[in-house]
Amino acid sequence: MVDSAQTVGSVPINMQDMGIDYLVCSGHKGLYGPQGIGLLMLKDPDCGLDVWKYGETGDFSEQLPMPKKAPDCYEAGTPNLPGIAGLAEGIDFVIEQGQDKMFQSDLQKIETIYEVLSDIDGVVLYGPPPGTLKVPIVSFNIIGMTAAKVGEELFKRWDISVRTGLQSAYWAHEAAGTLPYGTVRVSVSCYTGGQDIEELAEAVATLRYEINKGKI
Q: What gap in Å lies between CA 188 and CA 202, rounded to an integer?
């Protein structure tokens, strides 16, 4: 089983070539779907995967046990139809735009962010440097301020949204030495423009300046 929450929609994945039996992912990241919807993809729909959730499916109401046929056997209760419709539109959007084209564009934006942040004294960057194949995110910290406080200031003063803390990746932060406060994580999409990157750099530089001057 492969967790591809950060990669599906960005990095090309071929389950057959990669020997993946089960692929799980969220729908609201690289697939541009709404929150609250995800995917479980099976190489063999009749693999006999154990079901942990039981209940009415609506298709075989005359049968008390869960159906044995996929996908009904994995879908107890009322499906999240608005989420499914939104995810379908998101997938169509990625296909229309071109997955590889979007990925390369996002990587260029992330490399630009990495470079402008690396020029700011007191900013610590984590992860692979520019030119390395990775998902389009950048993690950093500002010396003298916790990640949570940085995120709060960025949103409150500049309307910039970032993910702060441990980002559901405790072991990654343990390996990076960023426990217990984690990092500030910046991600981009096809809607991120050059002005957005400039505003982020200016905001981070301002915070670092204010820390140095004891203003914050």
A: 17
The yes/no answer on whether domain 100-212 falls in CATH 3.40.350.10 is no
Q: Which candidate, 12, 32, 28, 192, places its Cα nearest to that of 108?
A: 192
Predicted confidence at residue 58, as pLDDT, reads 66
- Number of other residues whose CB lies within 10 A of the CB of residue 14: 8
Distances (CA, A) of 196 to 21, 73, 108, 187: 39, 45, 14, 11
Q: What are the backbone dihedrals phi and psi of residue 109, each rounded to the nearest 5 degrees, phi first? A: -65, -40
> Shortest CA distance to 41 belongs to which of 67, 69, 21?
21
Global pTM value: 0.86
For the chain, which residues score pLDDT lower than 70? 56-58
CA–CA separation, 33 and 54 (whole Å): 26
Q: Boundaries of CATH 3.90.1150.10 in the chain?
A: 100-212
**Rg of the chain (C-alpha set):** 21
